[in-house]
């Protein structure tokens, strides 16, 4: 049960309805559509600022301000989708830090 006036958004009601109907496909579509829209939004923001003159510090900052949210969005989605066992493996081997350093430098 939810407290009165609390908006859970579409995910929880969709999850509950899936249990009632016996099909999770509506939940999968809800998430797929939301992830696709978010991925495109973050990706396009980074791509639009990706190519800039090396000596243009302001443009470089704008790129980083778009790149970081894009990569963090992808990372959070991966962690949520893959689960803690995959996240623990990457953190243990330092792959995430290495990959971030390679992209930013």
Going by helix content, strand content and strand pairing, the class is: mainly alpha
Q: What is the succession of H and E elements?
A: HHHHH
Q: Which sheet architecture does the biggest sheet show?
A: none
Which descriptor suits the 3D outline? elongated
Task: For the record, give the distance between the C-alpha atoms at the N and C termini, rounded to a whole number.
Answer: 48 Å
Extract low-pLDDT stretches. none
Topology, number of strands: 0
Provide structural commentary.
- With 105 residues, the chain is mainly alpha-helical.
- The protein has one domain (11-104).
- Helices cover 79% and strands 0% of the residues.
- The chain has five helices and no strands.
- It has helices at residues 11-21, 25-50, 57-82, 84-93, 95-104.
- Helix 1 (11-21) runs antiparallel to helix 2 (25-50).
- The longest helix is centred in the middle third of the chain and has 26 residues, at 25-50.
In short:
The protein is mainly α and 105 residues long. It has helices at residues 11-21, 25-50, 57-82, 84-93, 95-104. The N and C termini lie far apart (48 Å).
Quickly list its features.
5 helices, mainly alpha, about 100 residues
Which SSEs are present, and which pair or pack?
Layout: H1 11-21, H2 25-50, H3 57-82, H4 84-93, H5 95-104
Helix pairs in contact: 1-2, 2-3
């Amino acid at each position: 049960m939810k407290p009165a006036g609390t908006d859970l958004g579409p995910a929880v009601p969709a999850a509950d309805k899936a249990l009632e109907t016996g099909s999770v496909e509506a939940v999968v579509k809800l998430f797929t559509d939301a992830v696709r829209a978010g991925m495109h939004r973050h990706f396009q923001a980074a791509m639009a600022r990706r190519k800039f003159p090396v000596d243009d510090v302001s443009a470089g900052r704008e790129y980083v301000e778009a790149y970081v949210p894009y990569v963090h969005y992808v990372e959070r989605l991966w962690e949520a989708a893959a689960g803690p066992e995959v996240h623990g493996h990457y953190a243990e081997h330092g792959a995430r830090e290495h990959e971030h350093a390679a992209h930013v430098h």
